[in-house]
Write the structure tokens for this entry.
Amino acid sequence: MAPSGWNLYLWFWRSRQLCSVQTINVKILQEKLKNDPLANGSAAEILVDDTDIKIITGDWKKETTRGYEPTLLLNNSKQPSGVRFEPEIKKKGRYQVYFYYPRIQNEADALYIKVYNGRKQTSEIIQSRDIK
């Protein structure tokens, strides 16, 4: 078990020994965190945003204010438009899907969200007025 509390020691996974932060092999630590970011063997969160788009249809503009991250996409046309994300899922498992929806003027009346799990597609229509 790794020691608790903030101190000058890290639990070094490879050797299972305590070592000072000054002597840790940074390359090995980076590789370990890349493959096990929560350092407990569980599946990590999969985060996607407007920089991870695979397919985009419609007239979208990048906005640098009012978003959760540095940018977000806005579509001011009345035509059907869409954005498709295909995140890399490294570990099989059950995942929950969440999204951030900023409240803006002239927002869409509804959002059409489709999630494909590799076998089955699930569709949801979310009314903007129901988002709190």
Summary: Residues 1-41 form one domain.
